[in-house]
Amino acid sequence: MAIKVVAWRCPQNHRCPAVRACPAEALKQEGRAAPVVDEDLCVDCGACVEVCPMGALQYAETVAVVR
Ligand code: SF4
Q1: 37 Cβ closer than 6 Å to some ligand 1 atom
Q2: What is the distance in A from the centroid of ligand 1 to the CA of 26?
Q3: How many domains does the chain have?
Q4: CATH code of 47's domain
Q5: What does the angle CA 26 – CA 31 – CA 21 come to, to the nearest 5 degrees?
Q6: Which residue among 44, 50, 59 is best mutated to probe the pocket of ligand 1, counting the most ligand atoms within 8 A of its Cβ?
Q7: Residue minimizing CA distance to atom 8 of ligand 1
Q8: What's the N-to-C CA distance of the chain in angstroms?
Q9: pLDDT tens for residues 29-63?
Q10: Can you tell me the distance from the alpha carbon of 38 to that of 41, in angstroms, rounded to the nearest whole number?
Q11: Domain residues for 51?
């Protein structure tokens, strides 16, 4: 699986809590923009999907369904 950022779901006005929750340091955030996933580091643990209350981090397979 892969993690995708659904940027329109992110209000982009805060420090992303998922960045701190990621055990692989795979999430990067520039300022208060939506985070981006470094797919080379991501281990698909799903921690970020659980942490984001806005549903801005999703498994790629579900993005089309959840939109
Ligand atoms: S799935 Fe896990 S390793 Fe990948 S970005 Fe989310 S928290 Fe980090």
Answers
A1: yes
A2: 6
A3: 1
A4: 3.30.70.20
A5: 35
A6: 44
A7: 22
A8: 18
A9: 999 999 999 999 999 999 999 999 999 999 998 87
A10: 6
A11: 3-66
The Cα–Cα gap between 62 and 28 comes to 22
Q: Is residue 67 over pLDDT 60? A: no
Strands (E), the chain: 3-5, 27-28, 36-37, 57-59
Closest residue (by CA) to atom 2 of ligand 1?
45
* Residue 18 confidence (pLDDT) above 70: yes
Distance CA 24, CA 54 (A): 21
The ligand 1 atom at the shortest distance from the C-alpha of residue 44 is 1
| Nearest Cα residue to atom 4 of ligand 1 | 42
Q: Extract the tokens encoding 11.
A: 């209000």
